[in-house]
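ugh ok fine here u go
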Amino acid sequence: MTTINDVAKVSGVSIATVSRVIHNKGKVGDACRARVKKIIEELGYRPNNNASSLAGNTSNTIGVVTPSISMSFFGSLASGVEKGARENNLKLLMANSLYETESELRAIDSLRDNNCKAIILHSEYSDEKILIKLAGEIPGLVLINRFIPEIANRCVWLDNTSGSQIATKYLLDSGHKNFAVITSIYQNRDPSHRVDGIKSTLDKNGIKLLENNIEEASSNMDGGEQAVKALLAKGCKFDALLAYNDLMAIGAIHALFDAGLRVPEDVSVIGFDDLSIGIACRPRLTTMHYPIEEMAIYATNLAIKLSEPDAIPSKQTHLFIADLVIRDSVKDKS
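structure:
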């Protein structure tokens, strides 16, 4: 790990001068300041704001970065990290990336500057090379909901394909033959993996999912509503609907009722995530339980373990499976 001594040596100045540049205090010539800043950037030096922790080589803080903690799914993720932090007597710092790569990287920098012992990162869009580089710089970095083979031992992820396969098979076993899918328009990996799982399961049972019966939209209630309206406007016929997540599923149910279709009597609907809102809606939503809180607790303990100086490298991967939660939104037609 790069130290302030390294920066001073390469820059050809004293440690005190480097410190003045970092903290923007004291007199330093413009040319010297520019040279030191350039060396800091080239070496990837991270000044540590927690001097007492640095001196003792310890930290009592863990960080988590999510796209938007205001969303129920990411709130559950943060809750899991908080529980894991409490179990290990650590404080928690949280940051939002707002689905922007630059904001995500700034959030990570902020957590590093605050001397976080470990960081749990939900990254959907950052380049894999950047994340691999960060993993080399941050011993306690763990990715959640993303799998990168080169750093598999730092990835805690869900098998989205098997989850959608389970949901599709349940609908098939319930006697459904005409399928439609509403999926997320966002270009991360989860939507494509889930659609692949649906298609492969239907293919094995001699049913082809028509491309016309797949509709993309924003992964929220409005998106689910608009996606179903688009399917109906195209004249698509279906008695089973698989939604990318619970929010889209609930929006879909609204659109179906508005069109005079009953759930589950006319159309069965399955969501994905198992958010609490799925119990509050009518009919109560059948869904796939995404164990995000359990995954977050696990990721927190893994990150803490990896951050220890004597951590032993491992090739182990950390894969979770979704479970079917049967409620009232699927009709048994078998």
